[in-house]
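look at this stuff:

>
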Amino acid sequence: MASLWAGSDVDLSVLHQCRIAERLEFRLACLHKQKIADSDTKCEGEIHKFRQRRRRSGTWPRTRSLNAPSPIQQFGPCGRIMKNSAMVMTIQDPASQRLTWYKPPLTVLVIKKVRDASVHLPFVQLVQWLIEEKRMLVFVEAAVLDDPLLDQYSSFATVKDKLMTFRDGKDDLTDKIDFIICLGGDGTLLYASHLFQQSVPPVMAFHLGSLGFLTPFRFDNFQEQVNNVLEGNAALTLRSRLRCIVMRKGDDEKKTTKQPTNLLVLNEVVVDRGPSPYLSNIDLFLDGKLITSVQGDGLIVSTPTGSTAYAVAAGASMIHPSVPAIMVTPICPHSLSFRPIVVPAGVELKISVSRDSRNTSWVSFDGRNRQELLHGDSLRVTTSIYPVPSICAQDQISDWFDSLAECLHWNVRKRQKHLDELTDLTHSSSNDTLDSLEHAELIEKDS
């Protein structure tokens, strides 16, 4: 059965229809089980009224748990969170979040770091192994095949025609990708998040870049590691994302804007003063209440994953990616008492240019889609229900602290020397000094 999906003869429209049908079938089965378990639930009209009461003015309808929006438990057509009987009120222990496959994955997206010759050979080895050995349908970006340096590998010519291609912004990958493999640095994982603005398939990231904080896997024995993931039961880190919507002052401006204004970001959304020489003057609201006005170079709103990126460079703390939180960090504030803050993941932040601001502001989303915020415009940010399921090499704790030590050199210093003369100090008088003790020790060695 698996061999029918290999090569370039696959009808993608049929594959897409199958994915949609299987997804609907799975959802109907879940709804049927829920109806049996909740036989005493209210009628649909009452449920609709209840949901309308829960919906606050100016916010998006969200599925909530006790401390944050509950993440979607489905990752692409095949990936799921393994059911845990110890789950309490939909809050699952992050350490118990493990990947399981609803059915064997058939399609894989390989994201390669661009303009890096050192990634060419691993890329060729990986796609050749996935097609010939695992009989999987491999997707790559169309620009990858335009690289003339790949043609120097004779083995790549045998699989080049079997690769499926897509173009960012033109082709929709929804329900076509079961599994994602990234080759490169942290930017490849950010790009994967950018490609999937809703449910994201499980992501396995190999460290072939300059930093590799988000890429825990080594490429030395990639066959064994990929096989372990395809067999299921891999540890997951659900990296939360921020849902960002730019609200324009007038309808005319909204119609003329060409850049997307509804985006999910994995690291951070940054509001800055742009080319203006004046300080930014930004009003910050939390659930509709004015919290403060930011005067400085700008503001960073980041996820726990993004806390180790731009935010930590601006003086913020580092937060484990499993913590449900949103971090707000000022950039060079015009107040020494303005320290970074952490707010619950379920709140909605509203950022707008102050009326008396001398200049406008600029906003960027994970370093992309930079656009201007005019007076009267606002940016609304909250936690998305669509996280990025990042596959762990070991587990959530080990991967994160290993990255802190290896990539950021966290708490790396020379250890204090052991005090060999400790026993001598216990017998010395209060008039003795360390210099005199060291001098005595040198005399003893010479004798």
